[in-house]
């Protein structure tokens, strides 16, 4: 819509504005529909079914064409895009097609064998065993074939591995006396690295990385405070 505006006496300016009646479409509807108010677009709610296939990964996008917003009748409706976000599991960690689980075992189980049950994501129970005499070290890895995540499109026939990371927990109390002698007799002999009579004897202490780092930050902040006070 063109409009002529007088700027000052003898000077006029022609301005082009969007028509408020037809909204710039060049068509005016006098008898307007109550539902769309003449816009020829009605806002409706539609139920869209989303199928999550087994094996889909995080950040996967599902596109539904024409299910998005419809600005006006001259422009086609947009798309509805759903982006998947993998929720963390309390037991398993996903890495591509593999599933990783951390299993704590005692020192006795590490040396003498054990039997454990792992409940899978589809509620099955897997028996994980280690025979006596086969020692499992701390942070040792074992894998179970075809018990990981399914490959997409394989209908569940092709799966990754279930990877088990064993965490060996050691006894907290100190052994003394007869029990210590029995353990020493059972285990392999300790290597002799030699001993120097004039060497310095030091006592080691338990080290906690978290508390040590916190203590360093406190000492650093106290040092800055003292330095600022002395200036």
Automatic annotation (TrEMBL):
The record's keywords, sorted A to Z, are:
Metal-binding, Repeat, Zinc, Zinc-finger
Which Gene3D superfamilies does the protein's record reference?
Urease metallochaperone UreE, N-terminal domain
Q: Which SUPFAM superfamilies match?
A: DnaJ/Hsp40 cysteine-rich domain, HSP40/DnaJ peptide-binding domain
Q: Where is the signal peptide?
A: none
Name the Pfam families for this protein: DnaJ_C
Where does the Chaperone DnaJ C-terminal domain start and stop, copy by copy? 42-171
The segments labelled Disordered in the record are 206-231
MF-aspect GO terms: Hsp70 protein binding; unfolded protein binding; zinc ion binding
InterPro entries from the UniProt entry: DnaJ_C, DNJA1/2-like, HSP40/DnaJ_pept-bd, HSP_DnaJ_Cys-rich_dom, HSP_DnaJ_Cys-rich_dom_sf
Gene Ontology annotations of biological process type: protein folding
Superkingdom of origin organism: Eukaryota
PANTHER family per UniProt: DNAJ-LIKE-2, ISOFORM A-RELATED
Name this protein carries in UniProt: DnaJ homolog subfamily A member 4-like
Organism annotation: Octopus sinensis (East Asian common octopus)
Q: What is the lineage of its organism?
A: Eukaryota, Metazoa, Spiralia, Lophotrochozoa, Mollusca
């Amino acid at each position: 819509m063109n409009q002529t505006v007088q700027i000052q006496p003898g000077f006029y300016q022609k301005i082009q504005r969007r028509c408020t009646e037809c909204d710039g479409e060049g068509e005016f509807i006098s008898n307007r529909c109550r539902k769309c108010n003449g816009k020829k677009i009605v806002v409706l709610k539609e139920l869209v079914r989303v199928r999550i296939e087994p094996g889909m990964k995080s950040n996967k996008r599902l596109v539904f064409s024409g299910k998005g917003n419809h600005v006006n009748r001259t422009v086609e409706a947009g798309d509805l895009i759903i982006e998947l976000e993998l929720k963390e599991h309390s037991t398993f960690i996903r890495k591509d097609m593999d599933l990783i689980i951390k299993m704590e075992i005692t020192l006795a189980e590490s040396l003498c064998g054990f039997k454990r049950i792992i409940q899978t994501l589809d509620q099955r129970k897997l028996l994980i065993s280690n025979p006596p005499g086969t020692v499992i070290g701390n942070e040792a890895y074992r894998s179970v074939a075809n018990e990981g995540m399914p490959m997409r499109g394989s209908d569940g026939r092709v799966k990754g591995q279930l990877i088990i990371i064993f965490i060996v927990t050691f006894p907290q109390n100190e052994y003394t006396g007869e029990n210590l002698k029995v353990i020493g007799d059972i285990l392999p002999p300790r290597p002799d690295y030699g001993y120097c009579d004039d060497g310095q004897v030091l006592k080691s202490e338990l080290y906690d990385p978290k508390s040590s780092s916190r203590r360093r930050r406190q000492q650093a902040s106290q040092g800055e405070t003292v330095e600022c006070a002395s200036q």
